[in-house]
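Entry type: protein chain
Record version: 2
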Amino acid sequence: MTQTMTGGCQCGRIRYSAEIAGDEAYWCHCRMCQKATGGIAAAFVQVELAKVTWLSEPDWYESSPVARRPFCSKCGTPLGFAWADGTGDMDLTVGSFDDPSRFRPVVHAGCEAIHEAWLDTRDLPRLYTAQTKSVADRWQAAGLEVPE
């Protein structure tokens, strides 16, 4: 079932809508995606280019001779990946969707740079933000509730 979903950057300056057909997403572990996101991998949803509408135009970084990446230059949020020649599908970062809960990873890409130790973390302790004293105290001092 196709659904129009929305997303954007952390500060709200850049917004998009996209027609999403399924719930499939993927991890890209290549070094360019690691560096572009600052993480161990990038979580992406692949979308037909024509089905993405930028409600406010993102900034673009030419990350290589073949790729460019939309982002917000105000808050730094990485928003995706597109081919530099303007063809093919594009990827939107899972975390930039307003509600990313629909998506599930179905494949790993860029596995030449995968960090195996980070893949299965089920047995690690789980700390919730509101229960982390150093974080919760700062939000309370600012007169605010801890965000989700």
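Comment: The helical segments are 31-37, 133-141.
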